[in-house]
Amino acid sequence: MKFIIQRDRLVQSVQDVMKAVTSRTTIPILTGIKITATNEGVTLTGSDSDISIESFIPKEEAGDEIVEIKQPGAIVLQARFFSEIVKKLPTDFVELEVLNHLQTVIRSGKSEFNLIGLDAEEYPHLPQIEENNKFQIAGDLLKAMIRQTHFAVSTSETRPILTGVNWKIENGELSCIATDSHRLALRKAKIETDHEASYNIVIPGKSLNELSKIIDDSNEPIDIVITENQILFKAKHLLFFSRLLEGNYPDTSRLIPADSKTEITVNTKEFLQAIDRASLLAREGRNNVVKFSTQEGGIIEITSNTPEIGKVVEEVQSESIVGEELKISFSAKYMMDALKALEGTEITISFTGAMRPFVIRPLNDETILQLILPVRTY
Amino acid sequence: MKFIIQRDRLVQSVQDVMKAVTSRTTIPILTGIKITATNEGVTLTGSDSDISIESFIPKEEAGDEIVEIKQPGAIVLQARFFSEIVKKLPTDFVELEVLNHLQTVIRSGKSEFNLIGLDAEEYPHLPQIEENNKFQIAGDLLKAMIRQTHFAVSTSETRPILTGVNWKIENGELSCIATDSHRLALRKAKIETDHEASYNIVIPGKSLNELSKIIDDSNEPIDIVITENQILFKAKHLLFFSRLLEGNYPDTSRLIPADSKTEITVNTKEFLQAIDRASLLAREGRNNVVKFSTQEGGIIEITSNTPEIGKVVEEVQSESIVGEELKISFSAKYMMDALKALEGTEITISFTGAMRPFVIRPLNDETILQLILPVRTY
């Protein structure tokens, strides 16, 4: 194998596939990046066996030569060293050549690295996915949907299925749901699909988090293909594979209350900042819980009290309080996570009593909601 | 105690004195910030008993009212909570009031905190320092002198005196010297002094590091007063006390070779980047050592070789190589630290053989030098 490549493009691709590489693997070859040169260009692959990422660098693009292939071939190089090296090379072009015995030379200006590679034949094959049934979603929308749901997955392995995000596709609509059984995040969107299939799958939260880091914040469409135990995201020159979690995701639809007894509309930022301050003294005591109560004149009072340290009282003027008076306690952290995930300057919170889960929605937006279970303190 | 203060000024002062506060203290009251209100303004104090910082906020400045004192007094508040609170308060002005039993109320807009304070009478007194013998140095020069020397102090407690920077003042010149016995950093500058006294003291590296974070990067003069076991730095509205290290600092003047056998002049940035790359594969093997050798045509070759991983060869075109041929090995980390500390686009390295310490200086600048001991590998 031998080729000369634009350094910037190589650096970008290495950074992308590095998202899948971990040093904590039991399969030594997966600490490497696989580099394959064909007459079409160069492909880099990284994998931790849960996530696999493939980035393709074409020989040329818009008339600009990006890679000059001198001899096709393949090699696996230690990801940690290779990524550090390419970042620091001195010139705009890099030559990569595999000599005999897997010895690989990287040349740039007056800098020359000799790395001992691993045999590319031993690198695991990526899943072969038939692309019959695919659907499409814009990159920026996909990123938003991940951001608004994946934080609510469980971090505990006691119910492994809850460490994933439940994706349901039906009637041209994608619903993403995450819950750790104390709170739930839901986001829906219309999608482009060329078939009638419906799906109900669970994608590891970690996979979605890594995916959202490498897709562009543009409306370029991402193709999505779902199989029995894999999901494939296809962007331009990029393939992102994730395994799916096995098992049935709990039916969450009945958790969301249909009616409400108290409905409050409030400015998102003011409310978020008040919750943040009210929780300052509560961070260690009692699991970060604040008390919330409705007052005369549309005022919301948020308080917390940690005996040895002190107490906080915050007042927020709401837009409106409709329905019954309410005193309720909840995790300030869950509330702040939920408020940060919502878009829009105003939110509505619908309560059905101090012991029932409550729902937070942006004003006039039915595609997203956040649900939080209260804490018993009153 | 009761006063109303501009939030921005309070936040800045709290941040400054926080540099001296640590949660790892055996004296509980030192986890707090002491707040004293007099008719002149508000003083904040933080201390870990090695370093003490006092920040004064005047009642008014340039006709602008900064603090309105309603009742003088003093209190100590938990630094961690107090600093978080003031940062997040909603309005531009903050009211602070001590009620009975050390209860302290912090009010801002519709936010009200009740903190349980500690008795200010129990806060240790700061050292009383007579200001008879002081000298002056511009803030930006002081910061530069700290930056260029303190990194070379020892991090090991086996010779505690080497964890400090040796300051020598004589004939209107300040010399700062730091060494961990493998390398040495030296920086000199002329200073303003109103007396003939000479000093030879050792200031803890940590103190200087914290000091350099809170002094402005301007040419405003800093007053310095040295006593038996303390040093005081006085900037506008700011006092910074540090204890001095006890013991005699080794005489380092004889370490610096007077003559040289090989002298190399090279572009600082090109050389630094080549060393950085050459060390990429050596970071774990053999203590990050690279080999350096002079070649025909003014070329410097830098190499490293880690058997299981690979090897690197870097070539740098020097401006000049004068004197004997040379092969030498040294720590890439020490060399990079030294090069980053030096100002100037070109440096001269003076070697007196492969086993002797060598000296790095900017071209045409006698006020600063870095010395490194080589490693035996050739």
From TrEMBL, chains A, B:
The reply to whether Nucleotidyltransferase figures as a keyword in the UniProt entry is: yes
Matches recorded under SMART domains: POL3Bc
Q: Which InterPro entries match?
A: DNA_clamp_sf, DNA_polIII_beta, DNA_polIII_beta_C, DNA_polIII_beta_cen, DNA_polIII_beta_N
Citing just one GO molecular function, the answer is: DNA-directed DNA polymerase activity
- The answer, when asked if Hydrolase is one of the entry's keywords, is no
Tell me the ranges covered by the DNA polymerase III beta sliding clamp C-terminal domain, including all copies: 254-376
Assigned keywords, A-Z: Cytoplasm, DNA replication, DNA-binding, DNA-directed DNA polymerase, Nucleotidyltransferase, Transferase
Its chief place of residence is cytoplasm
Q: Please give the subunit comment from the record.
A: Forms a ring-shaped head-to-tail homodimer around DNA.
Please give the name of this protein: Beta sliding clamp
UniProt organism field: Neobacillus paridis
